[in-house]
């Protein structure tokens, strides 16, 4: 009798164990299906993102009509002459002051940049059209070049991360920012000496000395 009971219990245990194995197998299968589904979703998302980027990049490389006007702003603290040919030859466009903005056809702008590449790369003027910047292959330079609004904020000491931004600015553009600060103070503008000292440390020249010299020669 005891033997039969043990055999019956063994059979029941085998059935329960078989059921547990089947349940585990189904759970593992379900998890694998979920993983495959997630991978498929991620893959599809990546494909969509890549397609969107391809479309955007292709659009950015579309040619600009030669007679389209592009806004160009002078970032110089003096008269800026830009020519369509080297050494001032060809057609010329003149900016009389910092912040002055002129409309220039894309054809003329392209010729100006080709003839004055260094001026474009050093931020002597600012092209207010991202598409044009890309086509003229100035993207990397424009990651560091400051626009008129940012320069003005630095000069007026109204930029939260002023020192970090100034430090990353190309040296040629730093020269113009400093000249604007000096000009402002010499003409009676407010001066924050902590601001001047901090800029001086990065720039490598004493702005207060520069201001005093400019006042003496005024």
Strand order of the largest sheet: 4-1-5
Which class best fits the helix and strand makeup? mainly alpha
Q: Order of SSEs, N→C?
A: HEEEEHHEHHHHHHH
The first-to-last residue Cα distance is: 121 Å
Mean pLDDT over all positions = 84
Residue share in helices?
55-70%
Basic shape: elongated
Supply the number of helical segments: 10
Question: Poorly predicted ranges (pLDDT <50, ≥5 residues)?
Answer: none
Largest sheet: 3 strands, antiparallel
**How big is the Rg?**
33 Å
Describe the structure.
The protein has 218 residues and is mainly alpha-helical. Among the domains are: 69-142, no CATH class; 148-216, no CATH class. Helices cover 62% and strands 10% of the residues. It has ten helices and five strands. Helix 6 (148-155) crosses helix 8 (171-186). The model has no long low-confidence stretch (mean pLDDT 84).
